[in-house]
């Protein structure tokens, strides 16, 4: 996301929109973009520095550590903030800052149920496991009966 300094006038610039997902290169690590980055930020110049603040939202597909199923998670950065010195170029690229904040807000141990949209299948399977165990117990009893 390149900011042209000429666009940023004294009153600042409001940017609200979508942009291509900036973390495409993480697919090898199991983090796949599931849509565009949504941003809503204010940009301004103060002295010799550029500042930006606002919010970011990036849908990604992650793999649940419990059930190993892929699910879509929205990385939310509610307080994106940048303050960077201006030294020369007419444009400032905010993409490295956005990437950094998205990565900082990635869950270290993603679980599909964190967003509250679904119940993790690893949990759903627990009663099933208990049922088979009970059946096994009965069959053990049956064998005992046969013996006696
Ligand atoms: Zn899960």
Task: Provide key terms for this protein.
alpha+beta; two-stranded antiparallel ribbon; five-stranded antiparallel β-sheet; 148 residues; binds zinc ion; 2 helices
Explain this structure to me?
The chain is α+β, with helices and mostly antiparallel strands. The protein contains 2 helices and 7 strands. The chain has helices at residues 95-104, 121-147; strands spanning 2-4, 13-19, 32-33, 37-46, 49-63, 70-85, 91-93. The strands form 2 sheets. Strands 2, 3, 4, 5 and 6 form a 5-stranded antiparallel beta sheet that branches. Strands 1-7 form a two-stranded antiparallel sheet. The protein starts with a strand and ends with a helix. The model has no long low-confidence stretch (mean pLDDT 86). Zinc ion (ZN) binds at residues 64, 66-67, 69, 111-112, 120-122.
Count of strand segments: 7
Order of helices and strands: EEEEEEEHH
What share of residues are in beta strands?
35-45%
Helix percent band? 25-40%
Unreliably modeled segments:
none
Contiguous helical run count: 2
Major β-sheet, in short?
5 strands, antiparallel
Rg (CA only): 25 Å
Alpha-carbon distance between the two ends: 79 Å
Bound molecules: zinc ion
Offer a quick outline of the entry.
By secondary structure, the protein is of the alpha+beta class. 25% of the residues lie in helices and 38% in strands.
């Amino acid at each position: 996301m390149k900011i042209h300094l000429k666009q940023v006038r004294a009153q600042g610039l409001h940017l609200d929109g979508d942009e291509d997902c900036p973390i495409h290169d993480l697919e090898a690590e199991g983090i796949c973009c599931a849509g565009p980055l949504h941003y809503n930020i204010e940009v301004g110049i103060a002295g010799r520095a550029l500042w930006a603040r606002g919010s970011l939202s990036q849908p990604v597909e992650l793999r649940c550590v419990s059930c190993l199923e892929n699910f879509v998670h929205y990385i939310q950065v509610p307080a994106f903030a940048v303050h960077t010195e201006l030294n020369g170029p007419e444009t400032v690229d905010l993409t490295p800052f956005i990437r950094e904040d998205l990565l900082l807000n990635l869950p270290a141990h993603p679980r599909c149920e964190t967003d509250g949209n679904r119940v993790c299948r690893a949990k759903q399977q627990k009663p099933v496991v208990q049922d088979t165990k009970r059946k096994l117990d009965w069959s053990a009893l049956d064998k005992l009966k046969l013996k006696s």
